[in-house]
Amino acid sequence: MKTHASDVGAARAHQASSLASFVYLSTSQRQLVRAKAKQWIAWRRAHPTLHTAVGIGLLAFLFAFDAYALLELPRQLPFDLATRSGIVFAALTTGFLHGFLVCSIVTYSVHEGAAHDLIVVGNGPVTRVLRFVANNACRFFLADPEYYAGSHFQHHRWLGTEQDGSFTNHVRLRRLLLAIVPMAPVFSHSDFFPWRPQEHTRSRKISAVLTKLHLAVFFAAMAWRFGVLYALVSLLLVGTWISFVLDRVRESTEHLGMPLERVHGTRDFGLGLWGLLLGGGPWGQPCHFSHHLEPALPWYHQLALHFYLHRILTPEQKRQFFLRPVVGFPALLVRLARGGMR
C-alpha cells in the first residue's frame, strides 16, 4: 500500500481546522488503562495453553464453517437447486457468507497472527508449528503476512505521518472506489491494499500460488456438487469481491478524520452490526481504538478494554471514539464521500 503526500496534507489541514477542541485521554485515564492491560497480559502468560487452544480452535472453526457454507449450506437454503434462479440465489447467499468469512480469516491471521504474534503463545516444537500455520493461513486468500507485518509495525509507530504503513486518516473517494470494484486485487490497478506489496516479491508469489490452488480445489468441488454456475457466482464473483469490500471500507473509515497521533488516531466501531460485519467478527478489529491503546492485548481482551473504556471515558470522549448505534457508520460514510471528493 502506498502513502500519498496529498492525503497526508489533507489530514493535516483537517486537524488544524477541526480538531483543536479534541479531548484526548488524560494521564489518569491512560494509567487506568495500562494497569488493566497489565492484569490481562499477566493472565495470558499464566494460561498459554488455553490461549493457544482458543486461537487455533477459532481459526479451525472459521475454515470449517467456510467449507460448510460453500459445499453444504445450499442444500439447507429455501431455494430450488433444480432451477437456474434457485442456483443463483443460493450462490449469492453463500457467496456473501464466504466473503464475510474470508475477511474474518484474513484479518485474524494477518493482523492478530503475523503482525502481532498473538494467536499462539510459547516456543516449543508444537507451538512453533501452530504459530507458522496461524500466521500464514491468510496466504490462501492472497494476503502476504511478511509484507503486512512490516507495514503494520510502521502503522503503529508512525500513525498519521508519511511513514505510516497504511495511512487512512484521509481517503480519496476515487481511491476507495477503485479498490472495491470487482476483481480489483487481481488486476493490480490499485495501490490501496495493505496486506500485500505492489512489487511481485517471493512472498507475494507464494501467496498467489496458494490462493490459486485453494480456489481451484473449491471451484472443482462446488461445481461437482451444484454446477459451474453456482461455483462461478458464489466463489469467484461474489465471495472474493465481498471480502475485500468489507476490508477496504473498514480500513477507510476507522481512522478517518481522527488526530494524527498514534494512540488517539482511530475509533472503535464496537460490537454492534457495523463493527462485527466490517471486521469479520469480534476478532476482526471492531475495537481499533482499544487496540492502539494496548497493542499487546489479544482480540478478546480488546473487547474487554472496549467495555472498560465505556466506564472511564467522559461523554464527549465517547462521542469522539465510539460510533452511534446503527446510524453512526452511515454518517461516517457520508463524511468520507464529502471529504474524499474535495
Automatic annotation (TrEMBL):
What keywords are annotated for this sequence in UniProt?
Answer: Membrane, Transmembrane, Transmembrane helix
For this protein, the parts annotated as crossing the membrane are 50-71, 86-108, 176-195, 215-246
Instruction: Give start and end of each Fatty acid desaturase domain.
Output: 95-313
- One Pfam family linked to the record: FA_desaturase
InterPro entries, alphabetically?
FA_desaturase_dom (IPR005804)
Give the protein's recorded name: Fatty acid desaturase
What is the source species? Answer: Pendulispora brunnea
